[in-house]
Amino acid sequence: MNSESWWKNMLPQWPRAQWRRFSDRYCHGQGPYAHLFAPYDGDQVVAIDCETTGLDCRTAELVSIAAVVVKGGRVLSSQSLDVKLAPPDSLDEDSIRIHRLRPVDLEGGESVRDALDSLLTFIGNRPLVGWCVAFDVAMINRYLRPLMGFDLPNGTIELSALYQKKMRYWQPDLTPDLRFDAMAGALQVPVLGRHTARGDAVTSALMYLQLQKPTFG
Fold it and tell me: Can you name the CATH fold of 48-211?
């Protein structure tokens, strides 16, 4: 059986997302982005956040991306990325009220391609952690696949799922509030620069560290 026939036979047996990951690894595993597809065996994670012009990843556009490294029980603020993009066409008053980035604040911002290059260089193949991290990844992939031909292969850790699981042990009689600010408050983490990519990334990193503790309070 040739390789093309093998691929076609495998396609119906795998979920679409799993097939896409395999296909991306096959196509890019030997190229300039090969390191992104290698298994990660280190002790770091990267907290990530995106600010966008909306909440629908099919139509919203990226405004800024930030990421910060977590290692050894510490948030390494000196190892961080904070990228503002050129003003997107869909930037309007509604989104500006949330992230407070006006067109004038984004003058000289990076192109999407340059921003993605910076992001891939920074995160490498380390796992990504965030609140509603699937949305951030989906936003990045919406640009990444057309430009570079693959989705982010990094593993992800969803803070709200981790928080919910931990709270079953810490406070089993309470129903956890999974909103960002509520989680931060319950975990006694300061909310830094809410609705800024860097602030939300650092706050997410601090929440992740709290959730690594065996006990709470």
Answer: Nucleotidyltransferase; domain 5 (3.30.420)
